[in-house]
Amino acid sequence: MLNNKYLHLTLVICNLTFCLAASQAIALPFRSNLNRGNDLYQKQAYPEAGQIYQKIIKQKPKDQKSQFNLGDSLYKDGQYEASQQLFTKLTAEATSQKLKQRSYYNLGNSLFKQEDYKNAIKSYEEALKLDPKDKDAKFNLELAKKKAAQPKQKQQQDKKNNQNKKDQQKKDQDKKKQKDQQNKNKPKNDQEQNQEKQPKPGQMSREDAQRLLNALENEAKHKEAKKGQGRGQGLGGKDW
């Protein structure tokens, strides 16, 4: 249930990004960069999209909509603390009520992801003051309140379980990479030798063939020895 709610948060913040980007009207060079950034964002290349937005901001430091889109890219890339800083700045400096409201909403999302439910609640409440009809803010506010109401022990256990899951996934990935690298670095001659040691279906192994050869040689020697003993007895058996 919680995973679906997280997905809900992600989809909403994504929609806000494109809405702002589509309404932005700036000089052509910046518009071109903005389109490139939005294309990269749509392809989920969030770090690359963020670099484009940063380039726009460097050229136009007061471009608040590009700052908002940068915050979105950081959020989608899992950099929640960095996105929190940007949205906090925008809540104080936004020149339009719409941008301020959305900044409060996304600030709440960034805080929620960091499990700072108390401050996330405050951000969602501020967003609702500016737009009481924002259903997403209402939904996320109730979710944050439920998480904040959980016993500390439960919150810590959930956090520990999530961390253990991440650690295990990383271990599995590292183990797979190490195994792949070992197979890649293993000399081909060794692999061929190992294959040669294994008998093919219906074939005798080298060890079995050698044992059979030794047994045949021993049997031949044994028969030859018996023949020699018979001739000696016959020739010297009688005294003429």
From TrEMBL:
Q: Where are the TPR repeats?
A: 101-134
**Which InterPro entries has this protein been placed in?**
CellSynth/LPSAsmb/PSIAsmb, TPR-like_helical_dom_sf, TPR_rpt
Per the UniProt record, the source organism is Candidatus Saganbacteria bacterium CG08_land_8_20_14_0_20_45_16
- Classification via PANTHER family: LIPOPOLYSACCHARIDE ASSEMBLY PROTEIN B, TPR REPEAT-CONTAINING PROTEIN PA4667
* PROSITE patterns associated with the record: TPR, TPR_REGION
Q: Which UniProt keywords apply?
A: Repeat, Signal, TPR repeat
Q: What is this protein called?
A: Uncharacterized protein
Q: Which SMART domains match?
A: TPR
Compositional bias segments (type: Basic and acidic residues): 155-210
Query: What does UniProt give as the signal peptide span?
Result: 1-27
- Ranges of Gly residues composition bias in the record: 230-240
Region listing for Disordered, in residue ranges: 145-240
